[in-house]
């Protein structure tokens, strides 16, 4: 571990986020002895910050686990992952760049959000099986989860969310979200402290600024001015379901 890395391990904001991540990891038993975790890194601040958080957890957790940064390179005509690769190497993060040609030649800025997300997940699942990863970690935070709850209600007519831990394919692969208790603003501040906000990458759908998710985000921020607990309350609501008041099918 180089001197720069050791210095970053002591950043107060990183320690704070790591502490809350440790609480989420413990509450949902996300990480266990001997886990091999693929961290889905798109190039955005949250997924890259998650690498630093997991490295910090490695230093203080009472269990041994491994993780690698995994970037799915669709070889878009307007995106080059070289800057991200250089960051992995500079920060001494083990990594894998998996090239996929299913969208080769397309422009990331024009790609359909649904297809981008669907193809990325398929690639991650296939890579996990090939490389022996038993878990895939995403950098979704509390705001992401709450926005998804409302998106599902508003636009899909269903109640559901991104679960902090979710087993798939009969338990062969488990998705984990160690940042499930963390607010987006704290992740923004951490990214500034770690100096990763300018790396760029495919952190989200290119059309996200005009998406339904952005509309939900703006709405929640407005409501939060009157009720600062609204984000946490929506998250907690899925743990406090009054089944007697649900509609019968």
Task: Sketch the major β-sheet.
Answer: 6 strands, mixed
Report, as a whole number of angstroms, the end-to-end distance. Answer: 57 Å
**What count of helical segments does DSSP give?**
9
> Helix and strand string, N-terminal first?
HHEHEHEHEHEEHHH
How many β-strand runs?
Answer: 6
CATH superfamily: HUPs
Task: Tell me the CATH architecture.
Answer: 3-Layer(aba) Sandwich
User: What fraction strand?
Assistant: 5-15%
The CATH topology: Rossmann fold
As a percent range, the share of helical residues equals 40-55%
CATH class: Alpha Beta
Shape: globular
Question: Into how many domains do the coordinates divide?
Answer: 1
Q: Which structural class should the secondary elements be placed in?
A: alpha/beta
Description of the molecule:
The protein has 249 residues and is an alpha/beta fold. The chain has one domain: Rossmann fold. The protein has 9 helices and 6 strands. It has helices at residues 3-9, 12-28, 45-60, 82-90, 113-131, 142-156, 184-194, 212-226, 230-237; strands spanning 36-40, 66-73, 95-99, 135-137, 165-168, 173-176. The chain has a 6-stranded mixed β-sheet, sandwiched between helices. It is globular.
List the helices and strands and how they pair.
Layout: H1 3-9, H2 12-28, E1 36-40, H3 45-60, E2 66-73, H4 82-90, E3 95-99, H5 113-131, E4 135-137, H6 142-156, E5 165-168, E6 173-176, H7 184-194, H8 212-226, H9 230-237
Helix pairs in contact: 2-3, 3-7, 6-8, 6-9
């Amino acid at each position: 571990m180089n001197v720069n890395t050791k210095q970053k391990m002591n950043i107060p904001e990183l320690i704070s986020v790591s502490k809350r991540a440790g609480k989420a990891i413990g509450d949902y038993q996300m990480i266990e002895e001997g886990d091999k975790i693929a961290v889905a890194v798109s190039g955005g601040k949250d997924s890259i910050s998650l690498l630093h958080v997991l490295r910090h957890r490695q230093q203080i957790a009472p269990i041994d686990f491994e993780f690698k940064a995994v970037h799915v390179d669709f070889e878009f005509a307007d995106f080059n992952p070289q800057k991200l690769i250089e960051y992995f190497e500079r920060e001494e993060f083990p990594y894998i760049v998996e090239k996929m040609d299913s969208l080769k030649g397309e422009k990331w800025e024009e790609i359909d959000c649904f297809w981008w997300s669907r193809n990325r997940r398929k690639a991650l699942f296939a890579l996990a099986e090939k490389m022996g990863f038993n878990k895939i970690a995403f950098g979704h935070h509390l705001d992401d989860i709450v926005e998804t709850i409302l998106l599902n209600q508003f636009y899909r007519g269903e109640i559901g969310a991104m679960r902090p831990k979710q087993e798939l394919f009969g338990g062969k692969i488990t998705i984990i979200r160690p940042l499930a208790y963390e607010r987006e603003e704290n992740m923004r501040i951490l990214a500034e402290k770690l100096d990763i906000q300018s790396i760029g990458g495919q952190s989200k759908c290119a059309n996200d600024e005009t998406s339904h998710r952005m509309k939900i985000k703006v709405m929640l921020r407005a409501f939060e001015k009157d009720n600062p607990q609204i984000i946490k309350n929506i998250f907690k609501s899925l743990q406090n379901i009054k089944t007697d008041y649900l509609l019968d099918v």
